[in-house]
Amino acid sequence: MTTPVVVGVDGSASALSAVAWAAREARRHRVPLKLVHAYLVPTRGYPEIVLTGHEVRQALEDQGRRWLAEAEAAARAAADVEVEVALEHSGAAGAMVWESERARLVVLGSRGLGGFTGLVVGSVAVAVAAHGKCPVVVVRGEDRADGPVVVGVDGSPASEDAVDFAFEAASARGVPLKAVHAWSDFLVDGPYGSRFTVDWAQVEAAEQRVLAERLAGRSEKYPDVEVQRLVVRDRPVRALLAEAEGAGLLVVGSRGHGGFTGMLLGSTSQALVHHATCPLAVVRPIDGE
């Protein structure tokens, strides 16, 4: 069975942008697109004299079907792709994590309504990124189809899988890949840095070797992908935000070590989610570690 690209639908403009992006991604990989809307019946706030639980649920289902129909139209307008729709009585996070177990990719808008309210800045995004079983893309900024794929590289297991994902994405799009390895020495860069003598050329050469080792073997597998290696002495979030300008996709691991620690679960992830000017893909290690 072909695993689909799954996208969350909630009636917002952000979700419709995510649907269009997901449709084009499904088309690139010749897989189906699945549109999912999840809703929960509120347990408070609807006095029995006004509405019954059944009436509330029916209203939410009707609304969900309208949003799914609108999303399906947007998907078909964006790409010629097979579309499936699903209306689920569930919390948004639980629904998307469950869908991720049988998806190629889960796609989310950067802002939401209804069941996906606060999707990125709240607990739903954290849950999907931390517990999802497949890569998660948060769609924001412009969809630059001809822009390069940018990937953050630090050598952690999540970063290794992110590099694989980025190479495949660049190959499918027919665009270059920019591999960014950002590093900083907090001791030297800090208030006591003047007490140390550092051969920055030697450090730069060592970091270049680290990046080369992390990319080894991928160019043979993807000979069509032009690779640009970039080693910068900077904080990872700042370096990645700079490289995201003009990019078609920014790819990071779900967690890392060194500069990429806690990616998408802490301040670095929040900065990328709120300020990146292109879609952001978060890739967890295949074994979920």
Write a structural description.
It is a single chain. With 289 residues, the protein is α/β, with parallel strands linked by helices. The chain has 2 domains: 5-139, HUPs (Rossmann fold, 3-Layer(aba) Sandwich), CATH 3.40.50; 149-283, Rossmann fold. It is 42% helix and 19% strand. It is built from 10 helices and 10 strands. The protein has helices at 13-29, 53-78, 92-100, 123-131, 157-173, 186-189, 200-215, 218-221, 236-244, 267-275; strands spanning 5-8, 33-39, 83-89, 105-109, 136-139, 149-152, 177-183, 227-233, 249-253, 280-283. It has a 10-stranded mixed sheet, sandwiched between helices. Strand 2 (33-39), helix 2 and strand 3 form a beta-alpha-beta unit. Helix 1 (13-29) packs across helix 2, helix 3 packs parallel to helix 4 (123-131) and helix 9 (236-244) packs parallel to helix 10 (267-275). The longest helix is centred in the N-terminal third of the chain and has 26 residues, at 53-78. It is elongated, with a radius of gyration of 21 Å. Mean pLDDT is 82; it is low at 117-122 and 257-264. Belongs to the universal stress protein A family. One of its GO terms (molecular function) is ATP binding. Pfam families: Usp (PF00582).
